[in-house]
Amino acid sequence: MAEIETQALIIGAGPAGLFAVFELGMVGVSAHVIDILPRAGGQCMELYPDKPIFDIPAQPRITGRELTERLLEQCAPFEPVFHFNEAAQTLERESDGFIVSTASGKRFSAKVVVVAAGGGAIVPKRPPLKRLEEFEEKSVFYAVREKEPFRDKRIVVAGGGDSALDWAIELAPIAERLTLLHRREEFRAAPASVAKMRRMVEAGEMEFRLGQISGLVGENGKLEAVQARHAGETFEIPADTLLLFFGLAGRLGPIEKWGFEMKGGQIVVETSAFETSIPGVFAIGDVCTYPGKLKLILSGFHEAALMAHKAVTYVYPDRHYTFTHSTSSEIIAEKLHLGEKG
Amino acid sequence: MVKIVFVDPEGKRHEVEAEEGMTLMEAAVKNMVPGIDADCGGACACATCHVYVDPSWKEKMAELFERSEAEEDMLDFAFDVRENSRLSCQIKVTADMDGLVLEVPQQQG
């Protein structure tokens, strides 16, 4: 596959990555952005889209979703190219830059690489069950892409959030039998979904069991029953399909093995430009660590600005660069099509 | 300084010095206790700082076992939730917690 050329490659489209697009744009550096998720926003969108954040300067109260939308609006003039559903896999050095390849086989050639991967790739949480791998993608799933493969199955849906309820309600009518397994009577989900689920349980259209998953019964990836525990009792629910909805967690994955100096699962950077131990590769936001590091969104913004001022020297080694405020920046004026006189 | 003991899934004890006012999660992360992932950084939004509080503290400090509604909701995303389950980002260290023992679950997710 042909290499995609870019001046900067940003890994991660969370707040730090999006603001890095802006800061790089301000110094005349264009960027491509990859993210393992299908959309921008990172943790803000995946973990707390509707939870208000109170410590963004000049934004007394803003939700994760709003913050993402505004960052996208702010960086849009610099025309970032987004590549979603792409997981960064390898980093290789080339004569005057780097090649980053993704799990899907895309290859990016970049002068500088900015790792803004936060807590890592956000992936479904996997329960600590023996022999779980054996069943995964055969009879144990973390998402539903198509409904049809679930027709006439004996399904257990484990979890008590919106995903668990939505899919239980959706799949119960086509399943041979569907059991919702949750640890308590209360659900952290949209009240309408909870009400609908309870009506379906009452009508015998699905079953609800109180309990927590504790084991899998079956051979060669073929599930026969799900083991669960409640109030000291263990029981089995006959099933051939298990859907697990326990939210998401971050995994840095292959990036950890790119050869950076690491500390406690984070990338060590120096604090004048947030460069890693590999010159030309920067790390900003939650993924980086240094003495006094605070995992705040605003720290990621600061780190992005300092990163950009060093990154530009790799992209344009011969250009003399002078610092400009955004208020008097020619680049901003041009990108936002501001008139000659304001 | 308040001494807190985290017992990892292998049974290894990690004694950390916590400052009053910080959360148990922060004390664990600062001292790199394995198994406290704390993905969201303390926003009660991920359930990856789940711990089991030593049940013998129930008489001494009952409040150590009291979960808020938000925390109870978040625990729906943890595995093997028990009566003594807490999210360590939701507990502020106080002087009378000196010697507290917390068990780290096998896996946060």
Care to describe what's here?
The complex is a heterodimer of chains A (342) and B (109). Chain A is of the alpha/beta class and 342 residues long. Chain A folds into two domains: 4-123 and 249-335, 3-Layer(bba) Sandwich (FAD/NAD(P)-binding domain), CATH 3.50.50.60; 126-246, FAD/NAD(P)-binding domain (3-Layer(bba) Sandwich), CATH 3.50.50. Chain A is 23% helix and 30% strand. Chain A has helices at 15-26, 42-46, 64-75, 132-135, 162-171, 191-202, 297-315, 330-335, and strands at residues 4-11, 31-34, 52-53, 62-63, 81-83, 88-94, 97-102, 107-115, 121-124, 140-141, 154-158, 177-182, 207-210, 212-219, 222-230, 233-238, 241-244, 248-251, 262-263, 266-268, 281-283, 288-289. In chain A, strands 1, 2, 5, 6, 7, 8 and 21 form a seven-stranded mixed sheet that branches. A five-stranded parallel sheet of chain A has the order 10-17-11-12-13, with helices on one face. A three-stranded antiparallel sheet of chain A has the order 14-15-16. In chain A, a hairpin with a 2-residue loop joins β6 and β7 (97-102). The radius of gyration of chain A is 24 Å and the shape is elongated. The model of chain A has no long low-confidence stretch (mean pLDDT 93). With 109 residues, chain B is of the alpha+beta class. Chain B has a single domain (2-103), classed as Ubiquitin-like (UB roll) (Roll), CATH 3.10.20. Chain B is built from two helices and five strands. Chain B has a five-stranded mixed sheet, with helices on one face. In chain B, β1 (2-7) and β2 form a beta hairpin. Chain B starts with a strand and ends in a 6-residue tail after the last strand. Chains A and B meet through β14 and β18 of A and α2 of B.
